[in-house]
Amino acid sequence: MSPAATPPSAAATERANWTEVTAEALYQKLTALASNLWWSWRPEVTQLFRDLDPVRWRQLDHNPISLLREMTPDQVAERANELAMYTRINQAHRRLKEYLTDTTGTWAAREAGVLGARPVAYFSAEFGMHESVPIYSGGLGVLSGDHIKSASGLGLPLVAIGLFYDQGYFKQHLDEEGMQGEEYLNTKVENLPMQPALGKNGKPITVSIDTRGGALKAKVWLMSVGRVRLYLMDCDVEGNSPEDRELTSRLYGGDRRTRIRQELVLGIGGVKALGALGINPGVYHLNEGHSAFAPLEVIHQRMEGDGLSFDDALREVAQNTVFTTHTPVPAGHDRFDADMIEEHLGPLREKLGISHQQLMGLGRVEPQNEGETFCMTVIGLKASRRANAVSALHGVVSRRMWAHLWPWRVEEEIPIGHITNGVHVPSWLAQPMRTLFDKYLPLDWPQRMGDSRVWEGMYNVDPGELWETHNALKLRLLDFTRRRLSRQCRRRGEDEAVVDATRSALDPSALTIGFARRFATYKRADLFLRRMDEIADLVNNENRPVQFIFSGKAHPADEPGKSFIKRIANLRHDPRFAGRVVFVEDYDINVARHMVQGVDVWLNNPRRPLEASGTSGMKAVLNGGLNCSILDGWWAEAYNGNNGFAIGRGTQHVNDDITDERDAQDLFHVLRDEVIPRFYDRDADGLPRAWIDSMVESIATLSGRFSAHRMVTDYVRHCYLPAAGGVSSEMSMR
Ligand SMILES: *Cc1c(COP(=O)(O)O)cnc(C)c1O
User: Fold this and answer.
1) In CATH, what number is assigned to the domain containing residue 462?
2) Higher pLDDT, 624 or 6
3) Which domain holds residue 17?
4) Which of 267, 320, 456, 476 is the most buried (most CB within 10 A)?
5) Total domain count for the chain?
6) Which pLDDT tens digit goes with each residue over 230-252?
7) Is pLDDT at 76 greater than 60 in this prediction?
8) DSSP 160-197
9) Residue 47 and residue 415: Cα distance in Å, rounded?
10) In a domain? residue 644
C-alpha cells in the first residue's frame, strides 16, 4: 500500500481534532475579548491583538474585530503558537470574565448600593472610547467615554445612551495650501463591537417618535464598555424616509432641522428604548443639552403610569434628573424656533396636556417672551433639580450666565454647582509610566486612583528613572510624528526630497511643546503667531531650541478655525520653522494618546473664561508632561506654582484684541523666562532637577484630583445618590 492510502492513526486524528478545537476555541476567546471595549484600556490585551499582526493592526486603526475578520482560526492559532500566546489569551479571557461577574468587590457595591435596582441612565450625543469606534468629535465625547469607563471600573450601575453615526465625524486631510479637506468614511457595523439590542421579548428593538410630519423611527445597538452597556440609536431603518435614514449618519452635520431631529431621537427615543429594554432608571444624567428633551418623555411615562398631573410629574422627574452644562460659548447651546419645536414635539405636548406656550416656556429664560427661542440648556436646567458646570471657574461663569432664570436669587445662590472633569487613567497612561507607578504607588492604586493620597508615593520616585521613562515616550512620539508627516507629504504627492526631510524633522533633545485640540477659535491655536519673530528666535536658539507639534480639526463650517490650521500647517514652508513646527493631520484619540504621552510641555491658551474645563492637559499630567496654560478651566484650580506653568495671572480684558495681545506677550515671556530655563538647566548627571521636581509635583498633586474616578465618585455622592434617594436638598458643590 502507498503511504497516501494509509488511514490516519487514531492518535493523528485526535491531534488534528484537538488542534482544530483549540484553534476554534482560541479564536472565540479573542473574539469575545474584541467584543468588549474593556480590551482598550488593558495594555496586555491590546498587546495580544498587536502581536497577531503588527502591520495590519496599525493599518486597521487598531480595530481588533477587523483584524480577526481578516484571519482564519487556523492562522490565528499558528501565530499564537509561534509567539506562545496561549496562556496570555486564556488569562486575558479569564480576567474579562471575572471582571464582568464581580458584583460585590467594587466601590459602588459598597458605596452606592441603592442604585443597584434602578441604574443611572447617562445620555450623551457622543462617546469617545477608542479610535476604532468613530462616534465622537472631541472633548465632550472623550469625556463621556471616560465617564462610562470609570463607571465600569467602580462597578456603578449605569447604562449609557447615545447615537450611532455610521459616518462618524470626518477624517481630515490638508491640501498643498494647508486647506482642510473632510472625508467621511462608512464604518461597517460588522467591524464594531456592537450588536442589535434585544427587548424584553428577545427581539431587536425599534422605537418610534411621533412628529407632526409623521413617525421617526430608530433601531438600537448595544455596545459593551466593560461592565457598562451603551445603547446607540440609529435612524437607518426601514420605514424612515430616505433623508431620515441618514439622520444619524454624521456627528454635528446637517442643519437646524437635522439637529433637532437627532436630539429628538437621543432624548425621546433614548427614554423609549430604555422602556423597551425593561430598564427603569432611578437617575437620568443629561450630559450637555443635546439630550434635554428626555425629561419630557419621562414625564409622559409618569403621567400615564402614576396618574400624575404635568406639574407633579415635572417635579418628580426633575428630582431624578441631573444636568451638566459644558460650555459658556453661545454657539454651544442649541436653540430652536417655535415652529421647529411644534413640528417635532407637538404630538407629545398634546399627550402632556400643555399648551404650545407652556412648552416653549420650558425652553425660555422668560417663559412669556415670544421673542425668545427654545434653548436646550434652559430646559435642561428647568427639568433637573441638580445641575453642574465642569470646573470651579466654569461654575462661577455659568451661575452668572443663567442668573436670569432665578431672578429673585443673588448670584452665589444660583443652583448650578460644579464637578470638575477628569480623565480615565488606564486609557491615557503609557505602559512604561504604568510600570513606574506599579513600583512607587501602593499595590492597589488601580482601585484607588481617584484618591489623592495614593499619588504621594510619587515623591519617592528615582528622578533618573522618571526622566528616562519620559524620554523613551518622547522618542516614541517623535517616531510617530515623523511617520505621519512623511505619509502626509506622500499622499499630497510631494517630492521625494520633501518626504525624506520628514525623517529628520524634530530633534529628540529639544524642548517639545504639544498643542492639540479642536480648532475652535476661542482656543486660539494661532496665539503664538502674534509673537512670530520672538518665537522664531526661541525655536532657532542653538543651545536651547524649542519645537512644536500641532494637531486638531476645525468644524467643517468654521472658516476662521480652518484659517488657523492653514497658517500653522504652512509654517513648514518658512525656513525658520521647517521641521520645528509641525502639524499632524487627522487628530483623533490615537494622535491624542501619542501626543499626551510624549511631550515635555502641553500648551493650552484659550481665551479666558471660555474653556469650561479642558481635559487633554490632565492626560499629559499622567505621563509626566508639564502644563503651560492660561489660568482657565481646570488649570485655574490645578496650578499650584510648581506643578506646571501659568500664562498670565488669570485676568481678561473686555476687548478681545487687547486680551489676545497681552496673552501672547505672557505666553512668550513664560516660555523664555521659566519653561526654557527650567528644562535646560542640568545637573552634573545631565538631569534637569528642577524640571523633574515639577514633573513629580504635577503627577503627585493632579493625577488623583483630575481622574475620572474622582469625577464619577463626586457625581455619585453629590448628584446620583441624592437624585435617586429623594434627598431634597439642593446640590452644594460650590
Ligand atoms: C482629550 C481630547 C479632547 C479634549 O481636549 P481639550 O483639551 O479639552 O480641548 C479632544 N479630542 C480628543 C481626541 C481628545 O482625546
Assistant:
1) 3.40.50.2000
2) 624
3) 3-101
4) 267
5) 3
6) 999 999 999 999 999 999 999 98
7) yes
8) EEEE--SSBSPEEEE-TT--EEEE-----GGGSSEEEP
9) 47
10) yes
